[in-house]
């Protein structure tokens, strides 16, 4: 999923997003989704907090901001409705993994006895597609980073705050970074979903801040999946959409989009790496791949 080009959303550092954060918080508490200026003001007036009262006063003299906020809230709900159905069940994800790889999916480590042993279905699928595309193009890639990414300009260096799930062509001065947030099982999600959004937000903020100061752009992608878990944490799903429209994510790839969109994304980034003059690996045949 890309941002809707017809909706001009503010810069990620604009106060708009702080106002939107307060509205989302109050809407979540009251289990409502305001989409008009009047509904937003009523929601804040009924919040009963000092911060919300101040925000009501702030918006009362900023009609254009209030209208822009309502427009975004409508788009947010529409995008959620259109894309939530793209999330897959665990069985669907494993089946699609088998369409691109002959290898059985690995599993995430389970810390507590009795907890669901989740397969790395998305990790396996992303890895298979990425490896195939890069091998055919003779491009290096890191699909299992064991350290942090780093960007180097003439004046500064940035090191990622955490390990990511992939980098092209490498962890040093990559053209693309991606993070995978797949959650399986039949339980009701949990704080791990909020943690996933915080992680995406943190990396996105740091990458964009480095870009603005030193002019080096890195594409930042998030791949999310797991219908049952995200259904229980739909508010966090919406927050992932916010990161996309803030510009902290270049694209948000959801479940059923992976087989369609990820090959395109990798090919686009291979081209970007070649334009930058990144050294490529010798082209070779990708073993164990079932793409025709």
Describe this structure in words.
The protein is an alpha/beta fold and 292 residues long. The chain folds into two domains: 16-85, no CATH class; 90-275, Trna Endonuclease, Chain: A, domain 1 (3-Layer(aba) Sandwich). It contains ten helices and six strands. A four-stranded mixed β-sheet has the order 3-4-5-6, with helices on both faces. Strand 3 (166-168) and strand 4 (176-182) form a beta hairpin. Helix 5 runs parallel beside helix 6 (121-137), helix 6 crosses helix 10 (258-275) and helix 7 (191-214) packs parallel to helix 9. The radius of gyration is 20 Å and the shape is globular. 36% of the residues are buried.
Query: Quick one: biggest sheet?
Result: 4 strands, mixed
Q: Give the overall silhouette.
A: globular
By secondary-structure content and strand pairing, the structural class works out as alpha/beta
Low-confidence stretches: 281-292
Distance between the termini: 25 Å
Binned strand content: 5-15%
The CATH topology of the largest domain comes to Trna Endonuclease, Chain: A, domain 1
Radius of gyration: 20 Å
Helices, by number, come to 10
Can you give the helix content as a percent range?
40-55%
Q: Using DSSP, what is the number of strands?
A: 6
Mean pLDDT: 90
CATH class of the largest domain: Alpha Beta
CATH architecture of the largest domain: 3-Layer(aba) Sandwich
Going across the biggest sheet, name each strand in turn. 3-4-5-6
- Give the ordered list of helices and strands: HHHHHHEEEEHEHHEH
Total tally of structural domains: 2
């Amino acid at each position: 999923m890309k941002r809707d080009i017809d909706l001009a959303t503010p810069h990620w550092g604009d106060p708009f997003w702080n106002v939107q954060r307060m509205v989302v918080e109050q809407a979540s508490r009251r289990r409502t989704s305001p989409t008009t200026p009047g509904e937003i003001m009523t929601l804040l007036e009924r919040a009963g907090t000092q911060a919300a009262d101040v925000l009501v006063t702030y918006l009362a003299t900023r009609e254009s901001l209030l209208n822009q906020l309502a427009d975004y809230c409508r788009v947010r709900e529409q995008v959620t409705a259109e894309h939530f159905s793209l999330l897959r069940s665990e069985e669907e994800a494993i089946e699609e993994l088998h369409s691109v790889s002959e290898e059985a999916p690995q599993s995430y480590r389970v810390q507590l006895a009795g907890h669901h042993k989740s397969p790395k279905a998305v990790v396996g699928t992303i890895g298979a597609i990425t490896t195939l595309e890069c091998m055919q193009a003779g491009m290096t890639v890191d699909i299992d980073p064991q350290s942090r990414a780093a960007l180097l300009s003439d004046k500064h260096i940035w090191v990622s705050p955490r390990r990511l799930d992939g980098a092209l062509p490498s962890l040093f001065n990559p053209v693309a970074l991606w993070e995978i947030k797949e959650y399986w099982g039949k339980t009701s999600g949990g704080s791990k979903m909020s943690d996933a959004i915080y992680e995406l937000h943190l990396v996105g903020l740091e990458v964009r801040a480095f870009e603005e100061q030193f002019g080096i752009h890195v594409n930042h992608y998030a791949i999310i999946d797991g219908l049952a878990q995200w259904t229980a944490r739909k508010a966090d799903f919406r927050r992932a959409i916010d990161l996309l429209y803030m510009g902290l994510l270049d694209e948000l790839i959801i479940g059923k989009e992976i087989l369609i969109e990820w090959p395109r994304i990798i090919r686009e980034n291979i081209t970007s790496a070649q334009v930058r003059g990144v050294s490529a690996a010798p082209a070779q045949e990708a073993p164990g791949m079932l793409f025709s």
